[in-house]
Amino acid sequence: MTSSLRRPLALLAMLAAAQARADSEDWAVHGQWTTVSQQHNRFPSPYQGANSLDAQGRGEETTDLTLFAGLRLGANTEFWINSELDQGAGLSNTIGLAGFSSGEAYKIGSNHPYFRLPRAFVRHVIALGGDSDKLEGAANQLAGARAQDNLTITVGKMSVTDIFDTNSYAHDPRGDFLNWALIDAGAFDYAADAWGFTYGAAAEWNQGDWSARAGVYQLSPEPNGKIVKPDFAQIMLVAELEQRYQWAGHPGKLKLLAFDNHGGMANYADAVALGIAQNTAPDVKLVRRKAWRHGVAVNLEQEVAADLGLFLRASANDGAKEAYEFTEINRSLSGGMALKGARWGRPDDTLGLAGVVNALSGAARDYFTRGGMGILIGDGTLDYGQEKIVEAYYAAKLCKSATLSLDFQRIDNPAYNRARGPVKLYAVRMHAEF
User: Fold this and answer.
1) Architecture of domain 3-433 in CATH?
2) Backbone angles phi, psi at 306, to 5 degrees
3) pLDDT tens digits, residue range 170-182?
Protein backbone atom coordinates (compact mmCIF):
# COMPACT_ATOMS: atom_id res chain seq x y z
CA MET A 1 0.00 0.00 0.00
CA THR A 2 1.41 3.41 -0.93
CA SER A 3 2.06 6.12 1.66
CA SER A 4 -0.58 8.31 0.00
CA LEU A 5 -3.21 5.67 0.86
CA ARG A 6 -1.82 4.78 4.29
CA ARG A 7 -2.16 8.33 5.67
CA PRO A 8 -5.90 8.84 5.01
CA LEU A 9 -6.69 5.30 6.20
CA ALA A 10 -4.75 5.90 9.43
CA LEU A 11 -6.63 9.19 9.96
CA LEU A 12 -9.98 7.44 9.43
CA ALA A 13 -9.01 4.77 11.95
CA MET A 14 -8.03 7.40 14.56
CA LEU A 15 -11.27 9.34 14.07
CA ALA A 16 -13.35 6.17 14.25
CA ALA A 17 -11.60 5.08 17.46
CA ALA A 18 -12.23 8.47 19.07
CA GLN A 19 -15.89 8.41 18.08
CA ALA A 20 -16.28 4.82 19.38
CA ARG A 21 -15.23 5.93 22.86
CA ALA A 22 -18.35 8.06 23.12
CA ASP A 23 -21.50 6.63 24.73
CA SER A 24 -23.49 7.66 21.69
CA GLU A 25 -22.19 8.03 18.15
CA ASP A 26 -23.49 10.50 15.57
CA TRP A 27 -21.37 8.86 12.89
CA ALA A 28 -18.91 6.01 12.58
CA VAL A 29 -16.49 4.42 10.15
CA HIS A 30 -15.42 0.77 10.40
CA GLY A 31 -13.54 -1.54 8.08
CA GLN A 32 -12.68 -5.17 7.53
CA TRP A 33 -10.35 -7.20 5.34
CA THR A 34 -10.69 -10.94 4.73
CA THR A 35 -8.63 -13.29 2.57
CA VAL A 36 -9.49 -16.99 2.15
CA SER A 37 -7.21 -19.41 0.32
CA GLN A 38 -8.84 -22.79 -0.31
CA GLN A 39 -7.52 -25.98 -1.91
CA HIS A 40 -9.04 -29.38 -2.52
CA ASN A 41 -7.53 -32.79 -3.25
CA ARG A 42 -7.77 -34.82 -6.42
CA PHE A 43 -10.69 -37.21 -6.13
CA PRO A 44 -12.21 -40.14 -8.05
CA SER A 45 -14.46 -39.01 -10.90
CA PRO A 46 -15.41 -41.36 -13.76
CA TYR A 47 -17.09 -38.43 -15.53
CA GLN A 48 -17.95 -34.77 -15.06
CA GLY A 49 -20.34 -32.22 -16.55
CA ALA A 50 -20.51 -28.50 -17.15
CA ASN A 51 -21.23 -27.72 -13.48
CA SER A 52 -18.87 -30.25 -11.90
CA LEU A 53 -16.17 -29.51 -9.36
CA ASP A 54 -12.79 -30.01 -11.03
CA ALA A 55 -11.64 -33.49 -9.98
CA GLN A 56 -7.96 -32.73 -10.60
CA GLY A 57 -7.57 -30.66 -7.46
CA ARG A 58 -6.99 -26.94 -7.50
CA GLY A 59 -6.80 -23.89 -5.29
CA GLU A 60 -8.44 -20.47 -5.33
CA GLU A 61 -8.24 -17.29 -3.30
CA THR A 62 -10.80 -14.61 -2.45
CA THR A 63 -10.19 -11.21 -0.87
CA ASP A 64 -12.60 -8.48 0.18
CA LEU A 65 -11.99 -5.08 1.73
CA THR A 66 -15.08 -3.35 3.16
CA LEU A 67 -15.69 0.15 4.50
CA PHE A 68 -18.78 0.62 6.71
CA ALA A 69 -19.88 4.25 7.07
CA GLY A 70 -22.82 5.24 9.29
CA LEU A 71 -24.59 8.52 10.05
CA ARG A 72 -27.27 9.29 12.63
CA LEU A 73 -30.15 11.06 10.88
CA GLY A 74 -32.23 11.45 14.02
CA ALA A 75 -32.41 10.23 17.59
CA ASN A 76 -33.59 6.79 16.45
CA THR A 77 -32.63 6.74 12.77
CA GLU A 78 -29.38 5.61 11.16
CA PHE A 79 -28.13 5.52 7.59
CA TRP A 80 -25.42 3.03 6.59
CA ILE A 81 -23.53 2.56 3.37
CA ASN A 82 -20.98 -0.21 2.73
CA SER A 83 -18.46 -0.01 -0.08
CA GLU A 84 -16.38 -3.04 -0.96
CA LEU A 85 -13.43 -4.05 -3.10
CA ASP A 86 -13.48 -7.73 -4.13
CA GLN A 87 -11.10 -10.04 -5.95
CA GLY A 88 -10.93 -13.78 -6.60
CA ALA A 89 -13.32 -16.67 -7.21
CA GLY A 90 -14.57 -19.84 -5.60
CA LEU A 91 -13.26 -23.29 -6.46
CA SER A 92 -14.16 -24.21 -10.07
CA ASN A 93 -15.77 -20.76 -10.40
CA THR A 94 -18.18 -21.52 -7.54
CA ILE A 95 -19.86 -24.62 -8.94
CA GLY A 96 -19.88 -28.34 -8.22
CA LEU A 97 -21.18 -28.46 -4.64
CA ALA A 98 -24.74 -27.88 -3.41
CA GLY A 99 -23.34 -26.88 -0.02
CA PHE A 100 -20.57 -24.74 -1.47
CA SER A 101 -17.33 -24.66 0.45
CA SER A 102 -16.77 -20.92 1.04
CA GLY A 103 -19.21 -18.19 2.01
CA GLU A 104 -16.53 -15.70 1.01
CA ALA A 105 -16.81 -16.89 -2.62
CA TYR A 106 -19.50 -15.35 -4.79
CA LYS A 107 -21.16 -16.69 -7.93
CA ILE A 108 -19.30 -14.07 -9.97
CA GLY A 109 -15.53 -13.89 -9.56
CA SER A 110 -12.66 -11.94 -11.06
CA ASN A 111 -8.89 -12.17 -11.00
CA HIS A 112 -8.77 -8.37 -10.87
CA PRO A 113 -10.13 -6.22 -8.01
CA TYR A 114 -13.54 -4.69 -8.64
CA PHE A 115 -15.79 -2.31 -6.68
CA ARG A 116 -19.27 -3.06 -5.30
CA LEU A 117 -21.86 -1.35 -3.08
CA PRO A 118 -23.43 -4.28 -1.18
CA ARG A 119 -25.43 -2.24 1.36
CA ALA A 120 -27.11 1.18 1.55
CA PHE A 121 -30.00 1.24 4.02
CA VAL A 122 -31.89 3.27 6.62
CA ARG A 123 -32.82 1.79 10.01
CA HIS A 124 -35.47 3.46 12.19
CA VAL A 125 -36.33 2.30 15.72
CA ILE A 126 -39.65 3.07 17.43
CA ALA A 127 -39.45 2.63 21.21
CA LEU A 128 -42.29 0.59 22.74
CA GLY A 129 -41.14 0.59 26.37
CA GLY A 130 -39.12 -1.64 28.66
CA ASP A 131 -35.57 -1.15 29.88
CA SER A 132 -32.92 0.45 27.72
CA ASP A 133 -30.06 -1.61 26.27
CA LYS A 134 -26.64 -0.10 25.67
CA LEU A 135 -25.38 -0.69 22.12
CA GLU A 136 -21.68 -0.91 21.40
CA GLY A 137 -20.43 0.66 18.20
CA ALA A 138 -19.79 -1.90 15.45
CA ALA A 139 -20.03 -2.31 11.71
CA ASN A 140 -23.55 -1.19 10.69
CA GLN A 141 -24.45 -0.25 14.28
CA LEU A 142 -23.91 3.11 15.97
CA ALA A 143 -23.13 3.17 19.69
CA GLY A 144 -26.04 4.38 21.79
CA ALA A 145 -29.08 3.09 23.63
CA ARG A 146 -32.22 1.30 22.46
CA ALA A 147 -35.43 0.35 24.24
CA GLN A 148 -35.67 -3.40 24.70
CA ASP A 149 -39.23 -3.38 23.42
CA ASN A 150 -39.22 -1.77 20.00
CA LEU A 151 -40.28 -1.82 16.39
CA THR A 152 -37.31 -1.67 14.02
CA ILE A 153 -37.81 -0.85 10.35
CA THR A 154 -35.02 -1.36 7.80
CA VAL A 155 -35.31 -0.20 4.18
CA GLY A 156 -32.78 -0.23 1.34
CA LYS A 157 -30.17 -2.53 -0.11
CA MET A 158 -28.96 -5.29 2.20
CA SER A 159 -28.69 -9.04 2.64
CA VAL A 160 -31.83 -10.88 3.73
CA THR A 161 -29.62 -12.83 6.15
CA ASP A 162 -28.57 -9.60 7.90
CA ILE A 163 -31.97 -9.85 9.63
CA PHE A 164 -33.34 -13.38 9.05
CA ASP A 165 -31.87 -16.82 9.93
CA THR A 166 -29.07 -15.35 12.06
CA ASN A 167 -27.21 -17.63 14.47
CA SER A 168 -24.52 -16.75 17.02
CA TYR A 169 -22.38 -19.80 16.22
CA ALA A 170 -22.79 -20.35 12.48
CA HIS A 171 -23.50 -17.32 10.32
CA ASP A 172 -20.30 -15.44 9.53
CA PRO A 173 -17.85 -16.81 6.92
CA ARG A 174 -15.38 -14.11 7.99
CA GLY A 175 -15.23 -15.48 11.52
CA ASP A 176 -16.78 -18.94 11.94
CA PHE A 177 -17.78 -21.68 9.47
CA LEU A 178 -17.26 -21.31 5.73
CA ASN A 179 -19.73 -23.74 4.11
CA TRP A 180 -22.88 -22.18 2.65
CA ALA A 181 -25.12 -24.86 4.18
CA LEU A 182 -23.72 -24.12 7.66
CA ILE A 183 -23.75 -20.32 7.72
CA ASP A 184 -27.35 -20.30 6.40
CA ALA A 185 -30.22 -22.79 6.35
CA GLY A 186 -29.47 -24.83 3.24
CA ALA A 187 -33.03 -24.83 1.86
CA PHE A 188 -33.62 -21.11 2.57
CA ASP A 189 -33.74 -19.87 -1.05
CA TYR A 190 -33.53 -16.20 -0.09
CA ALA A 191 -33.69 -13.27 -2.52
CA ALA A 192 -30.22 -12.16 -3.59
CA ASP A 193 -28.05 -11.15 -6.48
CA ALA A 194 -24.94 -13.15 -7.37
CA TRP A 195 -23.14 -11.58 -4.36
CA GLY A 196 -25.95 -12.20 -1.86
CA PHE A 197 -27.65 -8.77 -1.69
CA THR A 198 -30.94 -7.22 -2.83
CA TYR A 199 -33.41 -4.39 -2.25
CA GLY A 200 -36.19 -4.67 0.27
CA ALA A 201 -37.77 -3.72 3.57
CA ALA A 202 -38.18 -5.50 6.89
CA ALA A 203 -39.97 -4.81 10.17
CA GLU A 204 -38.95 -6.38 13.50
CA TRP A 205 -41.19 -6.30 16.58
CA ASN A 206 -39.18 -7.04 19.74
CA GLN A 207 -41.22 -7.58 22.91
CA GLY A 208 -39.83 -9.16 26.05
CA ASP A 209 -38.44 -12.62 25.26
CA TRP A 210 -39.77 -12.87 21.71
CA SER A 211 -39.47 -11.19 18.33
CA ALA A 212 -41.49 -11.25 15.13
CA ARG A 213 -40.00 -10.25 11.79
CA ALA A 214 -41.44 -9.85 8.31
CA GLY A 215 -39.96 -8.61 5.07
CA VAL A 216 -40.46 -8.17 1.34
CA TYR A 217 -37.44 -8.38 -0.96
CA GLN A 218 -36.73 -8.18 -4.67
CA LEU A 219 -35.95 -11.38 -6.57
CA SER A 220 -33.62 -11.39 -9.57
CA PRO A 221 -35.33 -10.89 -12.98
CA GLU A 222 -34.57 -14.57 -13.63
CA PRO A 223 -33.16 -17.34 -11.43
CA ASN A 224 -29.58 -16.60 -10.37
CA GLY A 225 -29.63 -13.31 -12.32
CA LYS A 226 -28.21 -9.88 -11.57
CA ILE A 227 -30.13 -7.18 -9.70
CA VAL A 228 -29.30 -3.82 -11.27
CA LYS A 229 -31.97 -1.53 -9.79
CA PRO A 230 -35.09 -1.75 -7.59
CA ASP A 231 -37.90 -3.63 -9.33
CA PHE A 232 -40.48 -5.53 -7.31
CA ALA A 233 -42.19 -7.32 -10.18
CA GLN A 234 -40.83 -10.54 -8.62
CA ILE A 235 -40.62 -10.79 -4.86
CA MET A 236 -39.83 -12.88 -1.82
CA LEU A 237 -42.05 -12.70 1.26
CA VAL A 238 -40.41 -13.86 4.49
CA ALA A 239 -41.45 -14.04 8.14
CA GLU A 240 -39.73 -15.29 11.29
CA LEU A 241 -40.70 -15.85 14.93
CA GLU A 242 -38.03 -15.95 17.64
CA GLN A 243 -38.34 -17.12 21.23
CA ARG A 244 -35.52 -16.35 23.68
CA TYR A 245 -35.26 -18.42 26.87
CA GLN A 246 -32.95 -19.70 29.60
CA TRP A 247 -32.02 -23.38 29.94
CA ALA A 248 -30.09 -24.39 33.09
CA GLY A 249 -29.09 -20.76 33.47
CA HIS A 250 -27.77 -20.45 29.90
CA PRO A 251 -29.39 -18.40 27.12
CA GLY A 252 -30.91 -19.95 24.01
CA LYS A 253 -32.95 -18.95 20.96
CA LEU A 254 -35.46 -20.86 18.85
CA LYS A 255 -36.56 -19.44 15.49
CA LEU A 256 -39.18 -20.54 12.97
CA LEU A 257 -38.92 -19.05 9.48
CA ALA A 258 -41.19 -19.28 6.43
CA PHE A 259 -40.69 -17.79 2.97
CA ASP A 260 -42.46 -17.66 -0.39
CA ASN A 261 -40.85 -16.65 -3.68
CA HIS A 262 -42.96 -15.39 -6.59
CA GLY A 263 -41.37 -15.18 -10.02
CA GLY A 264 -40.79 -16.87 -13.34
CA MET A 265 -39.50 -20.32 -12.44
CA ALA A 266 -39.57 -23.83 -13.91
CA ASN A 267 -41.25 -26.97 -12.73
CA TYR A 268 -38.69 -29.80 -12.96
CA ALA A 269 -41.29 -32.22 -14.35
CA ASP A 270 -42.12 -29.81 -17.20
CA ALA A 271 -38.43 -29.52 -18.11
CA VAL A 272 -38.04 -33.32 -18.07
CA ALA A 273 -41.15 -33.83 -20.21
CA LEU A 274 -39.94 -31.33 -22.83
CA GLY A 275 -36.49 -32.93 -22.86
CA ILE A 276 -38.01 -36.35 -23.49
CA ALA A 277 -40.19 -34.97 -26.29
CA GLN A 278 -37.19 -33.29 -27.96
CA ASN A 279 -34.74 -36.11 -27.14
CA THR A 280 -32.43 -33.64 -25.37
CA ALA A 281 -31.25 -32.98 -21.84
CA PRO A 282 -33.92 -31.12 -19.84
CA ASP A 283 -33.45 -27.36 -19.53
CA VAL A 284 -35.34 -25.29 -16.95
CA LYS A 285 -34.81 -22.12 -18.99
CA LEU A 286 -37.28 -23.36 -21.61
CA VAL A 287 -40.28 -23.88 -19.34
CA ARG A 288 -40.31 -21.02 -16.86
CA ARG A 289 -43.60 -19.39 -15.88
CA LYS A 290 -44.87 -17.33 -12.94
CA ALA A 291 -45.29 -19.44 -9.81
CA TRP A 292 -44.85 -19.45 -6.03
CA ARG A 293 -42.15 -21.48 -4.26
CA HIS A 294 -42.28 -21.76 -0.49
CA GLY A 295 -40.08 -23.12 2.27
CA VAL A 296 -39.53 -23.29 6.03
CA ALA A 297 -36.58 -23.38 8.42
CA VAL A 298 -36.06 -24.06 12.12
CA ASN A 299 -33.01 -22.49 13.77
CA LEU A 300 -31.81 -23.26 17.31
CA GLU A 301 -28.83 -21.94 19.25
CA GLN A 302 -28.04 -22.88 22.84
CA GLU A 303 -25.23 -21.94 25.20
CA VAL A 304 -24.46 -24.99 27.37
CA ALA A 305 -21.46 -23.52 29.20
CA ALA A 306 -19.81 -20.12 29.35
CA ASP A 307 -17.36 -21.22 26.66
CA LEU A 308 -19.47 -23.70 24.67
CA GLY A 309 -22.40 -23.22 22.34
CA LEU A 310 -24.44 -25.60 20.17
CA PHE A 311 -26.58 -24.94 17.10
CA LEU A 312 -29.04 -26.83 14.92
CA ARG A 313 -30.86 -25.92 11.70
CA ALA A 314 -33.43 -27.86 9.68
CA SER A 315 -34.98 -26.56 6.45
CA ALA A 316 -37.09 -27.67 3.50
CA ASN A 317 -38.60 -26.09 0.38
CA ASP A 318 -40.87 -26.88 -2.56
CA GLY A 319 -38.81 -29.47 -4.43
CA ALA A 320 -41.07 -29.52 -7.49
CA LYS A 321 -39.56 -26.27 -8.78
CA GLU A 322 -36.04 -25.09 -9.55
CA ALA A 323 -33.88 -23.24 -7.05
CA TYR A 324 -34.24 -19.52 -7.68
CA GLU A 325 -31.34 -17.67 -6.01
CA PHE A 326 -29.31 -19.74 -3.53
CA THR A 327 -28.45 -23.35 -4.36
CA GLU A 328 -29.95 -26.75 -5.20
CA ILE A 329 -30.92 -27.96 -1.72
CA ASN A 330 -34.48 -29.15 -1.03
CA ARG A 331 -33.89 -30.60 2.45
CA SER A 332 -31.07 -29.78 4.84
CA LEU A 333 -30.11 -30.66 8.41
CA SER A 334 -27.06 -29.07 10.04
CA GLY A 335 -25.67 -28.84 13.53
CA GLY A 336 -22.49 -28.30 15.46
CA MET A 337 -20.62 -26.58 18.26
CA ALA A 338 -18.29 -23.67 18.95
CA LEU A 339 -15.84 -23.88 21.85
CA LYS A 340 -13.83 -20.94 23.16
CA GLY A 341 -10.18 -21.57 23.99
CA ALA A 342 -10.10 -20.71 27.72
CA ARG A 343 -9.61 -24.40 28.54
CA TRP A 344 -6.20 -24.40 26.86
CA GLY A 345 -5.15 -20.85 27.79
CA ARG A 346 -6.39 -19.11 24.62
CA PRO A 347 -9.69 -17.48 25.72
CA ASP A 348 -10.11 -15.50 22.50
CA ASP A 349 -9.61 -18.48 20.16
CA THR A 350 -12.50 -20.58 18.86
CA LEU A 351 -12.74 -24.23 17.79
CA GLY A 352 -15.74 -25.10 15.64
CA LEU A 353 -17.04 -28.49 14.49
CA ALA A 354 -20.22 -29.14 12.48
CA GLY A 355 -21.92 -31.41 9.99
CA VAL A 356 -24.56 -31.07 7.24
CA VAL A 357 -26.76 -33.48 5.30
CA ASN A 358 -28.34 -32.05 2.13
CA ALA A 359 -30.94 -33.77 -0.05
CA LEU A 360 -32.80 -33.32 -3.34
CA SER A 361 -36.48 -33.94 -4.02
CA GLY A 362 -37.52 -36.76 -6.33
CA ALA A 363 -38.33 -34.29 -9.12
CA ALA A 364 -34.92 -32.64 -8.84
CA ARG A 365 -33.13 -36.03 -8.84
CA ASP A 366 -34.90 -36.97 -12.07
CA TYR A 367 -33.94 -33.66 -13.69
CA PHE A 368 -30.25 -33.92 -12.82
CA THR A 369 -30.06 -37.65 -13.61
CA ARG A 370 -31.22 -36.85 -17.15
CA GLY A 371 -28.44 -34.26 -17.60
CA GLY A 372 -30.09 -31.05 -16.39
CA MET A 373 -28.02 -28.10 -15.16
CA GLY A 374 -28.71 -25.93 -12.11
CA ILE A 375 -27.28 -22.89 -10.37
CA LEU A 376 -24.35 -24.74 -8.81
CA ILE A 377 -24.65 -28.41 -9.78
CA GLY A 378 -24.95 -30.62 -12.87
CA ASP A 379 -22.58 -33.52 -13.58
CA GLY A 380 -24.38 -34.60 -16.76
CA THR A 381 -25.95 -37.57 -14.97
CA LEU A 382 -26.42 -38.61 -11.35
CA ASP A 383 -25.88 -41.61 -9.10
CA TYR A 384 -27.88 -40.04 -6.30
CA GLY A 385 -26.77 -39.91 -2.71
CA GLN A 386 -27.27 -37.32 0.00
CA GLU A 387 -24.52 -34.71 0.10
CA LYS A 388 -22.76 -35.07 3.47
CA ILE A 389 -20.41 -32.38 4.79
CA VAL A 390 -18.20 -32.17 7.88
CA GLU A 391 -16.35 -28.94 8.68
CA ALA A 392 -13.90 -28.03 11.42
CA TYR A 393 -12.09 -24.74 11.97
CA TYR A 394 -9.71 -23.19 14.48
CA ALA A 395 -9.70 -19.38 14.71
CA ALA A 396 -6.65 -17.99 16.52
CA LYS A 397 -6.78 -14.41 17.74
CA LEU A 398 -3.46 -12.83 16.79
CA CYS A 399 -4.22 -9.42 18.28
CA LYS A 400 -7.26 -7.27 19.06
CA SER A 401 -8.05 -6.69 15.39
CA ALA A 402 -6.70 -9.75 13.54
CA THR A 403 -7.63 -13.47 13.44
CA LEU A 404 -6.02 -16.35 11.58
CA SER A 405 -8.15 -19.44 10.90
CA LEU A 406 -7.42 -22.93 9.61
CA ASP A 407 -10.37 -24.81 8.11
CA PHE A 408 -10.98 -28.38 6.93
CA GLN A 409 -14.00 -29.84 5.14
CA ARG A 410 -14.81 -33.32 3.90
CA ILE A 411 -17.68 -33.67 1.43
CA ASP A 412 -19.10 -37.07 0.52
CA ASN A 413 -21.24 -37.33 -2.62
CA PRO A 414 -20.42 -33.82 -3.93
CA ALA A 415 -23.44 -32.42 -5.78
CA TYR A 416 -25.33 -35.56 -4.64
CA ASN A 417 -23.24 -37.85 -6.84
CA ARG A 418 -21.98 -41.10 -5.31
CA ALA A 419 -19.82 -41.68 -8.40
CA ARG A 420 -17.58 -38.72 -7.49
CA GLY A 421 -15.56 -37.86 -4.41
CA PRO A 422 -15.07 -37.71 -1.53
CA VAL A 423 -13.60 -34.20 -1.60
CA LYS A 424 -11.24 -32.93 1.07
CA LEU A 425 -10.83 -29.16 1.30
CA TYR A 426 -8.27 -27.11 3.22
CA ALA A 427 -8.45 -23.36 3.82
CA VAL A 428 -6.51 -20.58 5.47
CA ARG A 429 -8.45 -17.43 6.38
CA MET A 430 -7.01 -14.09 7.49
CA HIS A 431 -9.44 -11.55 8.90
CA ALA A 432 -8.77 -8.06 10.24
CA GLU A 433 -11.04 -5.29 11.52
CA PHE A 434 -10.28 -1.59 11.90
Assistant:
1) Beta Barrel (2.40)
2) -60, -25
3) 999 999 999 999 9
